[in-house]
Amino acid sequence: MTIIKKALFSAFFLFLAIVTFGQEKFTLNGYITNAEDGEALIGATIYVEELGIGSAANVYGFYSITLPKGNYTVQISYVTFNTLKETIELSSNQRLDLELQPESTTLEEIIITDEAIDDNVVNIEMSTEKLDIKTIEKIPAFLGEVDVLKSIQLLPGVSSVGEGSSGYNVRGGSVGQNLVLLDDAPVYNSSHLFGFFSVFNPDAVKDVKLIKGGIPANYGGRLASILDVRMKEGNTKKTTLSGGVGTVFSRLAVQGPIKKDKASYFVAGRRSYIDILAKPFTDGATLFFYDLTTKVNYNINEKNRLYLSGYFGRDVFKFDERQGFNWGNTTGTLRWNHLFNDRLFSNFAFIVSTFDYGFSFGENDLDQFDWDSRIVTYTFKPYFNYFLNTNNELSIGGEGTYYKFRPAEAIGVSDGEIRDISLDNKLAFESAVYIDNTQKISDRITLRYGLRYSNFQYLGEGTRYDFVNNNPGERKELVNAERVGSGESIADYGNIEPRASIRYKIGTGSIKASYTRTAQYIHLVSNTAAPTPIDLWTPSTNNVKPQLGDQYALGYFRNFGGGNNFETSIEGYYRETQNQVEYVNGADIFINELLEGDLIGGDGRAYGVELSVKKNAGKINGWLSYTLGRSELQTEGINNNEWYPTRFDQTHNLKLFGEYSFSEKTSISANFTYVSGTPITAPTSRFVQQGITIPFDYFDERNNYRIPATHRLDIGVKWVPGKPGKARKVKDYFVFSVYNIYGNKNPFSVFFSQKEGRVLPGNPTETVANQFSIIGAPVPAISYNFTF
Amino acid sequence: MKKILIILSLFSFAACEETVTLDLENSEPVFIIEGLVTDQNINQYVRVTRSVDFYASGGAETISNAVVTVSDDNQTFTYTHNPNASTDSLGYYLSTQQFAGEPGKVYNLRVEVNGQVFTASDELFRVTEIDSLTSEIDEEEFEDPDEEGEFYEMLFYTTEPQDTKDYYLFKFYKNGAIIRDDENDIFFSDDELLAENIEGVPTAGYYSLGDTGTVEMYSISNSAFIYYNDLINLLLSDGGLFGSPPVNPRTNIQGGALGFFQTSAVASRSIVITD
Q1: Cβ contact A576:A549 at 8 Å
Q2: How far apart are CA B37 and CA B266, in angstroms?
Q3: Which of A221, B132, B151, B152 has the most CB atoms at less than 10 Å from its CB?
Q4: Structural domain harbouring A108
């Protein structure tokens, strides 16, 4: 580890040496914010006309650009904001905080700047999708409730196993291979109501970025993707109240300055109320969720800013008064932005994140069962963003996370007698250091290269188990269990993760390529197709090896039309993975002390092509995403050692979204989805034992049958009340939507059972397959949203 | 976990379930062997059949030409196919002599059919006694009985030995016929969460006054427990969405057949349902 650190530091000094000392140079820096509410504009660009060079603001809205002494005209631009032109007389280092005005909403005034908005082509980033909340709000949503995770599933390379299912799959990766960050805090379960909605309150979300490939070195810990969600900071100019009344839940958000332009707060809450409406019909059973997203920020001075953000959410699902379960996430992030000098930006983040669930069963105090499970993590992340010169931008940093897994605190009461079948806590420490540089070689070529070294220690106090595996694919046999003292290492892993990307401009388009190696040390143990709230995270141990992935991606990006109306790209990817978590036949993953004996490692491969066409401006806008993909596993002892498709393997995935504005008051949007069926394990045969008919698979294959393809069309109409041209005090609008307008019965799952109806004694029972559709009819909804 | 699906569908009023015909692969028939040796002195049985395709109509194909033996350390018992030549006992083989299995012994099954040999062994464990049975009115059922007058439940009392790791299979009868809450129910348990005194645990189904209720408690081995667990997972599978994916049950039969060879001590008790 020390060797790696040394290597990183010498690399750092090497970069320092690249700084040229020829001409007298000065730095222009500052924050770029929204003039209306003071929110930082992530990725806003600053462009120096005279030199034809530019830079972009980081995730805190901070930019820094170093130029020779002189007079310049700089353009500051951001999508959906008016471009700002400033003339600068640069004769010393200069702090310049900038505010951009949002484009006025009238359609005629869409400004086509003389500089091409060709970020898609010019940017080094590939395999990266950005969604702003305005776009998310346009997509017709299930029950009219816009949702971040449902929206990203409309992007190329992103899929899910079924409608309403929890989690998402990126480029053939499993749900547990996505890192979900909410203001830098990892979110261990991102679903509400079993996956119909996500934990992200759309009122609180500012920016969503999904990185599917070419992952920069400052991110790590998961194989498939990074979803970086940033919350709003709170309006620094004035207090506003916004919210919505929908079919499923209601939302309310308050934000405003604590001290104008210095400090602000943001609080947003939601609660679903279907349980209250359905109370007369549900006989004590209930299902609801609530969440609270909150943030405070304080602009101490020009060099220091503090941000404190938190999320608290819970789902409750009760069968009756005593029985049921509940689950929820809590995250807290404290961040301190500090400017060491004009070019060295830093951020220190302290993060706490937990996910827990609890189960209760039993009809009375004498016979009951309670089970709680929890993961708690503490993270410290220092990050340095060094704007070396106009051609190099460095990121250096580290990450340290202490994990406490509590797989089961379980108490059974049988006839008044208490049984404690709790499992030991599992402790681990994960750390990483990284260095990453974005270097402009020429107008044509930009490189981004980095190195991440990650380390994972599975620590005592705990038990080290040793297994022998005589029959691959079957439960491993325990040969030794040994107590390990507090702080002692049970397993220790380290991985070097190189990352590299290149962009090469050809004509009006560009070619981009990237290579990413990632290591993943904690694993989501989920033996079901769609993750459930009771899935467990478990650390790498001496038996469960860290997952490793290598991804290669190649793409061509090009824009067409005046003002780059059409953004297009085509990307191919290939990923090979090792130590994928698989399960022995009949694996017991709950409250199993010997869980490690039921987990086996397999190899994975996923490859595909993604096509994206977007039209961003005009009365008609929207996008098309198409993915052709394959995702497979090979595990010794499973499926006769042959490659088999993963449960979420999807061959075709087509998404079309379009919006048409009739007037400034009314717009209509539509969303069409067609996805191939995912594979399931289906029986081929049946037999009868003790009068019970039992289906089984003669070939003993996994995921041997594909359920039919699903498709549906959703329509939404947005209507702003009031007379045209007249501004209302309250900005409000209605959304009418119909999900699955032609009522297609899309299969959610297929299961097998005995034929319904009474079988006469002596007559044989036959078996049938049943297809279950969560949404088999059109679902209309209406919601009302307001801000004042 | 099907319960989650039900609740989800309540939530989403647009849910629906329909029977579909899948284009499943054709398979070869597989021998299915089901055998039981109990500690009762009776003609013990083994059943040999063959599986059929998932969508095949009709019942399992019964096998009448197998050679079946069961042995312990000392002796071998031979079995004959359907000695009473009864049409509903096709595929059943009974031991030619009556014998009682003994706790602590391992029994070995050998089945030879068309030149293929299948073997299995299982250890017979002791079983605890059923101390008593009682009956009482179930309030909820009383208010809204499925069948008129049928609202008594039978309660079961036993003493679970705490010094051994035990597994149990239960069967419940009403007037001699097996009774379940659901046609796919199999009642079995390990003793992990069982206290020593099991007092008044309700059994399956409801009874009318005057019915005879019977409980049979079988000791089973760990491998039988795993087998029944796999069966239940298969039967209750929702297609792997919230439950684990369907997996063929782990059998103790060697040689490529499915089914299970089980040895059990049986405790049995009956009552007449009274107020």
Answers
A1: yes
A2: 10
A3: B152
A4: 2-115
Is residue A689 within 8 A of residue B260, CB to CB? The reply is: yes
Please report whether residue B143 resides in a domain: yes
Longest dimension (CA), chain A: 99
Per-residue burial over B205-226, b if 16 or more Cβ lie within 10 Å, else e, is bbbeeebebbbbbbbbbebbbb
From B233, B128, B205, B214, select the one nearest B171 (Cα to Cα): B214
H-helix or E-strand containing A197?
strand A197-198
Q: Does B163 touch chain A (CB under 8 A)?
A: no
- Main-chain phi, psi angles of A563, to 5 degrees: 65, 25
With both helix axes pointing from N to C terminus, report the angle between A274-282 and B2-11 in degrees, rounded to the nearest 10.
110
What is the enclosing helix (H) or strand (E) of B139? helix B139-143
Decide: helix, strand or coil at residue A597.
helix
List of residues 6+ apart from B236 with CB closer than 8 A? B1, B2, B184, B243
C-alpha to C-alpha distance for A349 and A336, rounded to whole angstroms: 7
Domain containing B175 equals: 130-222+265-272
Domain count, chain B: 2
State the pTM of this model.
0.88
Exposed (0-12), middle (13-18) or buried (19+): which is A377, by Cβ within 10 Å?
buried
B260 falls in which pLDDT band (50, 70, 90)? Answer: very high
Report pLDDT digits (tens) over A529-577: 777 788 889 999 999 999 999 999 999 999 887 666 788 999 999 999 9
Chain A touched by B36 (CB under 8 Å): no
In the listed set B93, B123, B153, which residue is the last one of a domain according to the structure?
B123
| Better-scored residue on pLDDT, A611 or B24 | A611
Which domain CATH number covers A59? Answer: 2.60.40.1120
CB-CB under 8 Å, A696 with B248: yes
B-chain residues within 8 Å CB-CB of A750? 20, 22, 239
Site of tokens 């699955």? A740
* Beta strands B258-264; B31-38: pairing state: parallel
A702 backbone dihedrals φ, ψ, rounded to 5°? -100, 140
| Contact: B49, A688; criterion CB under 8 Å | yes
Contact status, residue A385 vs residue A216, Cβ threshold 8 Å? no
Q: Which residues of B touch A745 (CB under 8 A)?
A: 16, 18
| CATH number, residue B178 | 2.60.40
CA of A512: how far to CAs of A448, A560, A582, A662, in Å?
11, 18, 34, 38
Spatial separation of the C-alpha atoms in residues A356 and A526, rounded to whole Å: 15
Q: Which residues of B touch A753 (CB under 8 A)?
A: 184, 235
B93: left (phi over 0), alpha (psi -120 to 50) or beta: beta
Q: Do A751 and B238 touch (CB under 8 A)?
A: yes
pLDDT tens-digit profile of A689-733?
Answer: 877 888 888 888 888 888 889 999 999 999 988 876 666 678 888
A-interface mutation test, from B22, B179, B180, B190, most A Cβ less than 10 A away: B22
pLDDT of A145 reads 83
CA distance A713 to chain B (A): 15
Q: How many domains does chain A have?
A: 2
B111 shares its domain with B178: no
ipTM above 0.95, yes or no: no
B58 interaction partners in chain A (CB closer than 8 Å) = 764
Rounded to whole angstroms, the Cα distance separating A675 from A665 reads 33
Q: Which of B123, B149, B172 is the last residue of a domain?
A: B123
- CA–CA separation, B249 and B258 (whole Å): 8
B193 touches chain A (CB under 8 A): yes
CATH code at A335? 2.40.170.20
Among residues of chain B, what percentage have pLDDT more than 90? Answer: 55
> What are the pLDDT digits (tens) for A351-381?
999 999 998 888 777 778 889 999 999 999 9
